[in-house]
Design brief:
- Chain C: Keywords: Signal, Transport.
- Chain C: Pfam families: SBP_bac_5 (PF00496).
- Chain C: GO terms for molecular function: peptide transmembrane transporter activity.
- Chain C: This is Solute-binding protein family 5 domain-containing protein.
- Chain C: It comes from uncultured Truepera sp.
- The structure holds three protein chains of three kinds.
- Chain A is built from twelve helices and four strands; from the N terminus they run αααββββααααααααα.
- Chain A is of the alpha+beta class.
- Chain A has two domains: 228 residues, MetI-like (MetI-like fold); 88 residues, no CATH class.
- In chain A, strands 1-2-3-4 form a four-stranded antiparallel sheet.
- By secondary structure, chain B is mostly helical.
- Chain B folds into two domains: 53 residues, no CATH class; 220 residues, MetI-like fold.
- Helices cover 78% and strands 1% of the residues of chain B.
- Chain B is built from 13 helices and two strands, in the order ααααββααααααααα.
- In chain B, strand 1 and strand 2 form a beta hairpin.
- Chain C is an alpha+beta fold.
- Chain C has a domain of 251 residues: Roll (Dipeptide-binding Protein, domain 3).
- Chain C has 18 helices and 24 strands.
- In chain C, strands 16, 17, 18, 19, 20, 21 and 22 form a seven-stranded mixed sheet that branches. In chain C, strands 3-15-13-12 form a four-stranded mixed sheet. A four-stranded antiparallel sheet of chain C has the order 6-7-11-10, with helices on one face.
- In chain C, strand 19, helix 15 and strand 20 form a beta-alpha-beta unit.
- The chains are: A alpha+beta, B mainly alpha, C alpha+beta.
- Chains A and B meet through helix 5, helix 6, helix 9 and helix 12 of A and helix 1, helix 6, helix 7, helix 8 and helix 11 of B.
Chain lengths: 377, 331, 680
């Protein structure tokens, strides 16, 4: 990816010997805190990661639940005041009666004000395993037995959209984060080895990296995604997409790290370590990489939103994640039909989820980059 | 300088060769080929028996040389390109690939260029304003808007615009013209109709670029404004405006202008998804279709072209940078 | 109130309300279904003088075309006014339409070489026989088209057909029996040319039918069995659209030295315009992905009752879209003139648009003509795992099929597709709009998950490992495994995809693990052809089993798609054997009463034995711009042939409402056909 924010003219400062990590970290942290946007982004990302980790806890419905009787329910309101005007501290929803409006032929759900279902926090709901280990059925939000709680409405199969978006976050954010992590790991290792050892390995990996960077990302992703056989199970496709992100994304970081390693390689402290008998990998990991870790984290954070957008585009085009796995891009595939745009516009909400997530990661990444750059200046 | 240029070109050539090989390889990854798709279609749409369909497609495979080993096919393809400019045959469209790309290239480039120009102009102007009015309320607004600008998924934005125009204003959306004007002589009315359709992909594709340019311009200008020579000019008593526009902006704008050649492939990439939503007769939908149907010469050629444009763009950008900025030296 | 009775009340109420909200009942004066006889609709006769469109008259004046009397055949085909609900029309105007399949070629004799579907094919292809008018007839029989009359021989073994005399292709070359024989022998019968119907379809009594030229305007079919009536159903659009010999023999190896079949298959590419055709309109401009323009054919060989050469309309503009939905979109924003309303998801949108002030189109719904069903694979070959094999055998057990059928909540599926009464439960067999449908013959398996579980239990399926899924009983090759069924649907049929997704929890509720996959259309077809599937969600929109029996039962070795004959043949179930006998008889039956009996019996056998598991059926409709005239109020979307697609040559628009054509200067003359690939 082209980093258009770098001006080529400012000379790099002399690198320090590996200084006490606490003071660099503290400096970076302080600098980071000066940007409100970055902090907002960071908080959002943190909450999002919590959400994906504890997805079943936060999701009022299991994403697998299809209910033919509650297809395309519009977002439900939580009520505090009932039909007789009485105030209830605990919110509730009304029962829904499906019907068709004879004038417009629209599917409507009339509220049956005689039946109220209380909504509870930290209450029992559907069974699941917390973190995949602890069986429980406590949820953040849950509605009384028999009632419905569709805060963002339902989709064409009666599945709760809020739950779908939450579970979709797992896939969309998961594939992006793990893809970025893997590509960062690959990039750091390859770049460091390339810079440190040079020679044939360096030339070959440089060439390959250049080759990969010569292709604009989306078309390349598209072309490789088509190679994933249609017979693979959806989870296999998920791993496939992740691998694609990793294998095609490492050159960016590799180039960074290689440059840094090259410039540090000739420094005194490195030569000293070498003279003292330290081996290559030890020098790389103990002395050089800590100076580079900041940049690695920045690039990592910046590539996540790109990958989220890429997954969204791929799945939207039908090339990425496949149903029954749910990702934000897959959800948006359903949003392109006439009836969605005309009658059930809430189906477009996953697009908003993508926007907010990408925005948050961008704020965070931008702030991190400022902090790290300033510190190393 | 000249030797530098020649060296860079020489360095780029093997990259170009590798690009062509890699493009072809990538397109070959999916199992089967176009004939597999055709086989299914023959049975579905014409009630051909499976045995007959298989026999026919095998025959066609032979005719088109699709049963030959990978390297042979690659060799033939690349030599055809280099010697005759023949990019192969598209099975979906029954025409030479070159014709298809050529026909659609015009509009594709037009959208990309307009998006780029607008994104540069608007981005630069807002960036200048932001930098010179740093930390004001408007600056903060622009910053947030810029972030939103390059965070919004472009297909989502295209959908939203389509929705608003179609259901809010009852307009015809999709394509570059209303059906009345698709095949018609140029006239003022046709031009207006064109604009009514054209602005959507330009805005959607150019939004991310505008946001980026705004941020870059702001950042660069801020850096430059703090530099010594600017302070000197100011100390000398030159008016603020003169300082800003004559010296600072010119220097700050360089990186943006330099990346014109490089920005193109990314604009093209943004166009792929957008044109799928808006049903535009550009390269995007064709590329997607060719991938899905394994129309390999078409897909491979387009993929390769994108990369080649990027490499050449990079090369030109580097050369231009060296030429313009004497401080930078490359060896 | 239980969910069930709430549903019923809602449905009943909306049925009543729907009746109120709908536009007026079809006007009997403008309805033609079942009212006419063949002689009311069409005849062939000569006129003393003919009239032509002004633009053609001008071209004759300028010497670019021969006079109309020379362009028309000796006895043109006359479309009589009984079939024109708005009477004879005036010349001029444009028909605007939308298509979503890129044009492949104009070599329509080759399988899969479409001109774009959506009505374009019907505009350029002309068949021997016309099945479309059958919808208007009280006693449906095939109508003449290029073949103007025919007689059976005494023994019924041969059929002599008289072709129209003096008709010409759009380049002025005469149409003769040579073209017909060429189409039959060198396309249909030639094993190297894939065509919509091959020798199989033309085999009667074990012999392949032969066709010979008797003279320039007469041909004779000779069959291996007496009076195979269903042969007429193989002489309509797509099956026997006549191909111009003078064009394609130049690419056919049988006729031209050095030609290859490869060349033949790629002849007439989409930009090679104008093509040689006998259709009412000729494509003259095509911008791929954007638009196609067609103009009137100066050599069209049909006239109205007063000798006016048809078509009335001068030009057709087809906008190309990436999906069929765009056609609805275009209709609503008035850049398209019509739509087949088939997708339940669209009903609301288009209905609301039709109810608006000043809406420019009429919308009418007809009977239930589309059915969605599950096809279970009975074929003996293609099973890749022991599980799949065991499942095939299980499918052959009626109790098992009944269990599956009881597990389906059809009303739920129907309502999920559309909230109102335009969808309803369907139990298989034919959709209820079919003329062969009889509700008394349908055995309904009402939603009853308990019964489904009980039946599975009877077969030995119980949940032995407590995971909620039943397991294969002892003694089966896969004993102990969970009962897993793989369901597949093609991604291009959205409603089928949604139905499939909704079935997963329904089956799980009775202990079956239903794995649902959505695959690209061609992939699904490959699976079907190699019999590599368990169940498929299928869509049926042909309510006439006599025309396409293979969609409903074992008509040939390859049909039905869910019980094909493998390399070792196939073992038919007893009721299938009965069906074979019935269907074979139907091929030769002309008596309508007997045909009705036959297909009633097939219906009964089909639903009693749960041959397929019907899910729900939907009504479809037509939406047409009010400007277009001669569209009957009860024109069916599809009956024997597509409805609107067979109207353009008798439709017209009033002078004050006409859209001005813009491409009349492109009407082809001899000049435009001179330097073409087949004339070199």
């Amino acid at each position: 990816m082209i980093d258009t924010t770098r001006t080529p003219s400012v000379p790099q400062p002399k690198p320090k010997a590996r200084s006490k990590s606490t003071s660099t970290l503290a400096l970076t942290w302080r600098r980071f805190r000066r940007s409100t946007l970055a902090q907002i982004g960071g908080t959002f990302v943190f909450l999002l990661l919590l959400l994906t980790l504890f997805a079943p806890f936060f999701a009022p419905y299991s994403a697998a639940e299809t209910q033919l009787g509650t297809v395309y329910v519009p977002p439900q309101r939580l009520h505090f005041v009932d039909a007789e005007g009485r105030f209830h501290p605990r919110p509730f929803t009304y029962a829904l009666v499906p019907d068709m409006d004879p004038e417009t032929w629209e599917r409507v759900y009339r509220k049956d004000t005689s039946q109220m279902y209380k909504v509870n926090f930290f209450a029992p709901g559907w069974d699941y395993k917390l973190l995949g280990l602890i069986p429980t059925n406590i949820h953040f939000l849950s509605v009384e037995e028999g009632g419905s709680l569709h805060l963002l409405g339902t989709d064409k199969m009666g599945r709760d959209l809020l739950s779908l978006i939450i579970f979709g976050a797992r896939i969309s954010v998961g594939v992006a984060v793990f893809g970025a992590l893997m590509s960062a790991f690959l990039g750091a290792v390859i770049g460091a080895a390339s810079g440190f050892y040079g020679g044939v390995f360096d030339t070959v990996t440089q060439r390959i990296g250049e080759l990969l960077l010569s292709f604009p990302t989306l078309p390349l992703f598209m072309a490789v995604s088509v190679a994933i056989p249609v017979e693979w199970p959806p989870l296999g496709v998920f791993f496939g997409i992740m691998m694609i992100f990793a294998l095609l994304g490492w050159p960016v970081l590799a180039r960074e790290v290689r440059g840094k390693v090259l410039s540090y390689r000739e420094e005194e402290f490195v030569m000293a370590a070498h003279a003292a008998g330290a081996k290559g990998p030890y020098i790389i990991f103990r002395h050089i990489l800590p100076n580079v870790i900041g940049h690695i984290i920045v690039i990592l954070t910046i590539s996540v939103p790109e990958l989220i957008l890429a997954e969204g585009a791929l799945s939207f085009l039908g090339l990425g994640i496949q149903p029954p796995l749910v990702s934000w891009g897959v959800l948006l595939r359903d949003a392109t039909t006439l009836e969605t745009l005309g009658q059930n516009p809430w189906i477009m909400l996953p697009g908003l989820a993508i926007l907010l997530t990408v925005l948050a990661f961008n704020f965070l990444g931008d702030g991190l980059r400022d902090a790290v750059d300033a510190t190393s200046r | 300088m000249l030797s530098f240029i020649l060296k860079r070109i020489a360095y780029a050539l093997p990259t170009l060769a590798l690009i062509s090989f890699f493009s072809f390889l990538v397109i070959e990854l999916p199992p089967g080929d176009y004939m597999t798709t055709l086989q299914g279609t023959l049975v579905s749409q014409s009630g051909m028996s499976p045995g007959e369909a298989r026999a026919l497609t095998n025959q066609m495979r032979e005719e088109y040389g699709l049963d030959q080993p990978f390297l042979v096919r690659y060799g033939e393809w690349i030599s055809a390109i280099v010697t005759r400019g023949d990019f192969g045959f598209s099975f979906i469209f029954r025409r030479p690939v070159g014709e298809i790309i050529w026909q659609r290239l015009g509009m594709t480039l037009l959208v990309a260029l307009c998006a780029h120009v607008i994104s540069v102009v608007i981005g630069v102007l807002i960036g200048i304003y932001s930098a010179t009015h740093r930390n004001t309320f408007l600056d903060h607004i622009f910053t947030v808007l810029a972030f939103i600008g390059f965070s919004v998924p472009n297909f989502f934005l295209a959908l939203l615009i389509m929705y608003v125009l179609a259901f809010g204003f009852g307009q015809h959306v999709g394509g570059f013209f209303s059906p009345d004007y698709v095949i018609a002589p140029w006239s003022w009315a046709r031009f207006v109709d064109f604009l009514k359709h054209f602005w959507i992909p330009v805005v959607v594709v150019g939004l991310a670029g505008t946001a980026r340019n705004m941020r870059v311009m702001r950042g660069n200008l801020l850096d430059v404004l703090n530099q010594n020579y600017v302070r000197t000019a100011r100390a000398k008593g030159l008016s603020n405006r003169l300082v800003v526009f004559k010296h600072a902006v010119r220097n700050a704008v360089q990186p943006i202008v330099m990346y014109l050649g490089v920005a193109l492939p990314f604009l093209l990439q943004g166009e792929i998804v957008t044109s799928a939503v808006l049903n535009l007769p550009t390269m995007g939908p064709v590329f997607l279709q060719s991938l899905v149907s394994q129309d390999m010469y078409l897909a491979g050629s387009f993929l390769m072209l994108l990369a080649v444009v990027l490499v050449i763009g990079n090369l030109l950008a580097d050369i231009a940078l060296v030429w313009v900025d004497p401080r930078v030296s490359y060896d | 109130m239980t969910v069930c009775s709430r549903w019923t009340l809602a449905v009943v109420l909306s049925l009543v309300a729907l009746g109120a909200a709908q536009e007026a009942e079809p006007d009997p004066a403008r309805s033609l279904s079942g009212k006419l006889e063949l002689s009311d609709i069409v005849e062939y006769r000569a006129f003393d003088s003919y009239q032509e469109a002004p633009e053609l008259a001008a071209m004759v004046e300028a010497g670019e075309l021969p006079p109309v009397a020379e362009r028309l055949p000796k006895e043109p085909r006359v479309l009589k006014s009984a079939g024109m609900v708005d009477g004879m029309g005036v010349y001029g105007g444009v028909w605007r339409d939308t298509f979503a399949v890129p044009t492949v070629s104009y070599n329509w004799g080759v399988a899969g070489q479409t001109q774009g579907y959506f009505g374009i094919n019907e505009m350029v292809q002309e068949p021997l026989v016309d099945l479309f008018p059958m919808w208007m007839m009280a006693q449906p029989e095939p109508a003449p088209r290029l073949a103007k009359s025919w007689e059976w021989s005494e023994d019924g073994m041969s059929l002599t057909m008289n072709l129209i005399e003096g008709a010409k292709w759009s380049d002025g070359v005469p149409f003769t029996a040579d073209d017909v024989v060429f189409t039959y022998e060198n396309y249909i019968l030639d094993p190297n040319v894939p065509s919509p119907n091959e020798t199989d379809a033309w085999t009667y009594g074990g012999e392949v039918t032969t066709l010979e030229k008797v003279d320039d305007y007469t041909v004779r079919f000779t069959f291996g069995a007496a009076r195979p009536y269903s042969a007429f159903y193989r002489m309509g659009y797509e099956d026997f659209s006549v191909v111009p010999k003078h064009v394609f023999s130049k690419f056919h190896p049988e006729f031209t030295e050095g030609a290859t079949y490869q060349e033949l298959l790629t002849a007439a590419p989409p930009q090679d315009l104008p093509p040689v055709t006998m259709g009412a309109f000729i494509p003259v401009r095509y911008r791929p992905g954007e638009q196609m323009i067609l103009v009137r054919n100066p050599y069209y060989w049909q006239v109205d009752e007063e000798g006016r050469q048809l078509p009335y309309l001068s030009e057709v503009q087809y906008a190309e879209a990436s999906s069929g939905e765009q056609r609805t979109f275009n209709l609503i924003n008035n850049t398209g003139d019509r739509d087949n309303v088939e997708n339940p998801q669209i009903f609301t949108q288009i209905f609301q648009a039709s109810q608006e002030e000043g809406a420019h189109f009429n919308l009418r719904f007809e009977g239930f003509g589309i059915g969605y069903r599950l096809d279970l694979n009975f074929s003996d070959f293609g099973a890749k795992t022991p599980r799949a094999q065991a499942l095939r055998e299980m499918f052959r057990d009626l109790t098992f099929r009944e269990a599956l059928s009881y597990a389906v909540d059809r009303q739920g599926l129907a309502t999920a597709a559309f909230a109102g009464p335009l969808t309803q439960p369907w139990y298989g067999g034919y959709p209820s709009a079919s003329p062969f449908y009889d509700p008394n013959l349908v055995k309904p398996y009402e939603y009853n998950p308990d019964q489904a579980k009980a039946l599975l239990g009877e077969l030995g399926f119980t949940d032995t490992d407590g995971n909620g899924l039943v397991n294969w009983p002892e003694g089966t090759p896969v004993a102990g495994q969970d009962l897993l069924i793989e369901l597949v649907a093609g991604e291009d049929v959205q409603a089928a995809v949604e139905a499939g997704q909704a079935l997963v929890p329904l089956f799980r509720a009775v202990g079956i693990d239903l794995r649902f996959r959505v695959l690209p259309g061609p992939t699904v077809l490959n699976l079907v052809n190699t019999s590599d599937f368990d169940m498929i969600v299928d869509r049926i929109d042909v309510p006439t089993p006599d025309v396409q029996p293979g969609l409903y039962g074992p008509a040939t070795a390859d049909e039905p798609a869910w019980h094909q004959a493998g390399p070792e043949g196939r073992t038919l179930l007893p009721f299938e054997e009965e069906m074979v006998t019935l269907l074979e008889e139907a091929r030769f039956t002309t008596d309508p009463a007997r045909r009705l009996e036959i297909f009633h019996e097939v219906l009964r056998l089909s639903t009693e034995n749960v041959y397929t598991i019907g899910l729900y059926e939907a009504r479809r409709g037509l939406a047409v711009n009010k400007r277009l005239k001669n569209i009957p109020d009860d024109l069916p979307t599809f009956q024997y042939e597509w409805g609107m697609e067979n109207i353009p040559w008798l439709a017209w628009t009033a002078a004050e409402e006409q859209i001005a054509p813009r491409f009349l200067d492109l009407i082809p003359t001899a000049q435009d056909y001179q330097d073409r690939a087949w004339n070199q």
